[in-house]
Task: structure prediction
Amino acid sequence: MEESRLSDTQTALQQLKTYVGQHIIGQDTLVERMLIALLADGHILVEGAPGLAKTRAINVLSNGVEADFHRVQFTPDLLPSDLTGTDIYRPEHGTFTFQKGPLFHNLVLADEINRAPAKVQAALLEAMAERQITVGSTSYSLPKLFMVMATQNPLEQEGTYPLPEAQLDRFLLHVKIDYPNAVHEKEILHLARKEAGGDSTAKPTSALMQQESLFTARKEVLDVYMSDELEDYLLQLVLATRNPEAYDETLAGWLQYGASPRASIALDRCARAKAWLQGRDFVTPDDIQDMAHDVFRHRIILSYEAEAEGITEDRVIDELIARISVP
Result:
């Protein structure tokens, strides 16, 4: 689609993508996935080594969107009330008033989410799934624009609490990021010196994307055309994770559990969002295949045999894509 034919919301998203990309160098996939999560109204789990701009990425995104941002460092001593808020006693009135916690912001960074105990993870799960939190007997609605970006550090697992499958399934995407290349690293050095010298343009004078425009964009994403043949192809990919023996016996030995129906919904929404973000009003097979890894990665469970052989989730997904014919 030519630039002149882009809708106002698409133009605004392209400007936002360009702005974030100028300040998050060498992580184009992460930038695109954050925008797709916003468009698909979902949450994102990001896994990568320290120092790869995970925190900076969502902070810069919040500067470009009409949204408030809050970062929570997850630790083993964190309590559910540290996220949700709590009732505070006011002696001057003799009553309790609710003090809102960090989850009442639009964009929330759950840094090192796997370092929090089960009760804290459960509180976050309710917020992600139900868009509300409960304190005592009262439930409070969260903002209409609400996205959690959680991070995990894959380098050390000591003192961590692995996320249960039920909570992993609540994440729209599981994105893995790696180190930038030499060219991008040099650009990062230049940007760091520029910002250290006070010549930073990290925060625009006004939001590039208003919340109402974002909600309009979400409706446009749902109208992106997907043919019946592509919809069947999408569903075949999901069903193949549950019945891999229909395609290959070796593949069947690698998979213990397949993806849930949430995977079908997520892949549909993300493929449409990717097409829309690229200025198209139709989905292609490439859109589905490109999003499949981030949608399936945290929703399939490998067998013990696969883990013993060093087989990864991405390897299994690659094999599934290779074995299912494209319409």
The mean pLDDT is 90. The CA atoms of residues 14 and 132 lie 31 Å apart. The chain has two domains: 3-198+206-213, 224-323. The domain at 3-198+206-213 is CATH 3.40.50.300 (Rossmann fold).
